[in-house]
Input
Amino acid sequence: MNYALEPAGARKGALVVLLNGSGSFPAQLTIDPARNLFNAALESGNHVLAVAYRSDVAVVTMCGSRPDCYGASRSTLVNGVFAPGADSSLADIRSDEGLVSRIDQALRALVAARPQAGWDMFISGGADRIGWQRVIAAGHSQGGGHAAYLGKLFPLIRVVQFSSTCDAAAGVPAPWTAAGDVWATSPAAAFFGFSAPTVFTNGVPTAGDLNCPYHLAVWQNLGMPVSHQADDADTCAGINPHPAAILCSSNYPRWVALFR
Output
């Protein structure tokens, strides 16, 4: 199920697209009914759209030690068209399963259902159909990697990666994350990362965020400024460090700042 929220006060004219992690869904981003990512994004007057998508298997599980598989699989899941080199499990993908199509259809449904609520600001009459220049793409884990891939394709306001991007083969960032490539959104200016750190012992991840241990290496490969690399998210009792960056409510002020 998708979630859509409208600012109660003045509208900023920006849309935060929130993307959940692997095996999750948008509702799980609201574990705390008050101090959650949705409300953090709303505080600055943003519209918020959390889109359910095909996320049952992690990209890192699909691709493993195949470096080129990561970018091709991301392309497939974002565009809904099987890309050469993508994991074979995605060969049956339909165009309406692609993230771009799902965002587009959700926005058009909202414009029809809520014509005075401002959702039309995010619709484009051009070939892209979505007003990407008004979008902040954000996500956790697999969703954060998709947010980054959207930033590769489209000119976004900002990309926020929570405990992501995780794409690394044998600890080496996947080729698609290279800063030297052509990016529609500059990773050096508009990309931000927020995660609990991973602890390495003799080069081996041994504690902390073990689900996405090489996120910091990927941030560096993207060319993200050190000041945008927040590898110090609070963790809390009973919650795995990997989702702690989006579920521990003590991080709430940090979330608000990332969506301003």
